[in-house]
Amino acid sequence: MLYRTILISLILAALLNAGCQPVTPATPEPAILTLASHDSFNVSEEVVAAFEAQHGVKLQFLTLGDAGEALNKIILSADAPLADLFFGVDNTFLSRALDADVFAPYASPLLSHVPDDLELDESYRLLPVDYGFVNLNADKAWFETAGIPLPATLQDLINPEYAGLLVAPNPATSSPGLAFLLATIARFGEDGYLEYWQALRDNDVLITGGWSEAYFDHFTVGSGGTGDRPLVVSYSTSPPADVLYAADGRTEPASVNISPPGETFRQIEFVGILKHSPRQELAQAFVDFMLDTAFQEDIPLQMFVYPANVNATLPELFVQFGQTPATSAVVPPDDIEANRDRWINAWTDLMLR
Fold this sequence. Notes:
The chain has 353 residues and is of the alpha/beta class. 40% of the residues lie in helices and 18% in strands. Strands 1, 2, 3, 4, 5, 6, 7, 8, 9, 10 and 11 form an eleven-stranded mixed sheet that branches.
């Protein structure tokens, strides 16, 4: 009897003791905010961590292919969006993106630090984040050794001394390739651009599927000397990248920019909030973050383009070796949207068939 009384007492004490233990509440999972983009998007981990800590959120990044492919996926999934925001619409696809009506308007207060000429959407559905210039890069040592002057204009490229020297990416499969095609249309007009490309073909221009193949496989600088072309269609920020990633530790670029006035194309990249995202306020906060200086100053050495915010400080490599052309080729976004497929098809018929 005594044994039973003791056992019951012990059990009751254990139960009472268990009931007195504090219950640790479950930690709520942070909200997930998803940014979809083209494959070239990049941002530093510490920049991402700063936003996550500030807003108690987890950022998720979804890459969807090149700019055109990524936008198509966003449009096709509009009713069940793949993400909360999309980055990577540029001015060659701006009208298509706006006509699809998949983005919600948001006039970020940070736009006051962005030049008006970068703001191409008056409805504030797509806000400018960065910009860059597609031009020609040349291997300066190659030309010095060959005793051939650097070309000064697009017209020069069809001269006999530049035969077999240029490599350019396909405008049907490459964003810089399309930008270069648009520069030739702006320079020579609809009536003359195909004649110009015929002259380039006669002068043995090499066409590649994409920029990486053109730059790293064929350009004599990008390939480390194994390539066969000392002229490439690339970006005005390629020389800074050349220094940063040079295997030989050089402090000056081996490539130089050729940016004839009115003959380079300025690409502007935009971000937009998908209108069916359930996290509109959080997405707006991230747009503000993308336009603020911490994110903007991270852009140049991550994606090798220029920040849209005028208050962002450029890295020294950009100050020394980047180049902003005085004037660039102008093709209005509506004209690009109305004619892009026709221009590309005509180019393809001439150059690849």
